[in-house]
Amino acid sequence: MKFLHTADWHIGRRLHGFDLTDEQTTAFDQIEQLAIQEHVDGIIIAGDLYDRRLPAEASVALVNQMLQKLNLADHFPIYAISGNHDSATRLATGTPWFKQTDLYLHTELGQAFQPIEVGDCQLFLCPYFEPFEAQQYFEDESLQHLDQAFARVVSEMKKAFDPAKKHLLVAHFFVAGSATTDSETNLTVGGLAAVPTDLLVDFDYVALGHLHGKDALHADRARYSGSPVKFSLSEANQQKGVWIVDTDQSPITYEFKPLQPVHDVKLLTDSFETLMSSETDDSIDHEDYYGITLTDRQPIPNVMARLRTVFPRIVTLSRQDGYSAQVSYQGETSKQLKQKAPMALLDDFYEQVAKEKMTPQQQKWAQQALKQANEGGTNA
């Protein structure tokens, strides 16, 4: 059997206010084509189809469209679970008849112990759960932490193991030793967030979701697929894609297939002048999303608006050398500061931040701005 392993679609996600629908639909189209080209026998989606528990109507429509395309139009069986971003209750709507078209969507812990038998494999679909759900299911209040609950879950799964078949686990958790990025929600329920890797050793392959990088975990027979789209600047250097898992080999083999973004996420560090003059540089795709760090020390009027004329998808703008807006007025009391003229305060602020005095032209701009502000206050 051959499966495509993907996860963390996060439909509805935005990148610093930018709509990522084009990026997500382009990634989906590539996933669909890979499934067709590789002649897979099924598609595994390891949780977080949505980005939030109450998705917008447009997000619901898009997920429905994607699942229908893969399952009803392309006739791929789908083996999916709910993640920590999904609403298990909402995602479960329609599941009683989904299996008639080989669309298996498990959203309750109890479903994890009913393996789906496909060819030479048993697939155990374990949705994201919190320790209290395991307490309720097993009627055991001693399951206080995630590692305790997961150990009990695996023990229960193993009771259904067919020794003549290979065993695949689909799960959505943080596994001990994994590396995270700032776009991921950490699991902190129960005081212990991680699932120990030794609980996974009895499975021939573990298809994981939750962490967004394929290299987050290097364990025998366990892999995160990562998200198909970059969701933060901390993912800028990640290669996005999916795993093709082949159970006909012994041990099971898995090969990573990269996806190409329609708009990439990148980091740029340079001077304002150099960045502005790059408009004619064909080696730079100005339509990508950028986190820009300026090397200039002096303030630049209207800097963001001017940079956006060259890089319309700037997501963050910062200064090199930890450029700070914090100013200390040593030796001056609060009363003395209140008695200072606005221009004097601005001169002090500028000098401490920029490490140099304002130029005559900058002082002129500042005086004009203060005058307009005063006039606005008078007319209010």
Give a description of the structure.
The protein is an alpha/beta fold and 380 residues long. It has three domains: 2-258, Metallo-dependent phosphatases (Purple Acid Phosphatase, chain A, domain 2); 265-322, no CATH class; 334-379, no CATH class. 30% of the residues lie in helices and 20% in strands. The chain is built from eleven helices and 16 strands. The protein has a six-stranded mixed β-sheet with strand order 6-5-4-1-12-13, covered by helices on one side. The longest helix has 20 residues, at 360-379. The protein is elongated. It starts with a strand and ends with a helix. 34% of the residues are buried. The model is unreliable at 186-192 and 324-331 (pLDDT under 50).
CATH topology tier name of the largest domain: Purple Acid Phosphatase, chain A, domain 2
How many extended strands? 16
What is the number of helices?
A: 11
Which spans of ≥5 residues are poorly predicted at pLDDT below 50? 186-192, 324-331
CATH architecture of the largest domain: 4-Layer Sandwich
Q: What structural class do you assign from the helix and strand content?
A: alpha/beta
The coarse overall form would be elongated
Helix content: 25-40%
Q: What's the average pLDDT?
A: 87
Query: Rg, please?
Result: 27 Å
Output the CATH class name of the largest domain. Alpha Beta
Brief rundown of the structure:
With 380 residues, the protein is an alpha/beta fold.
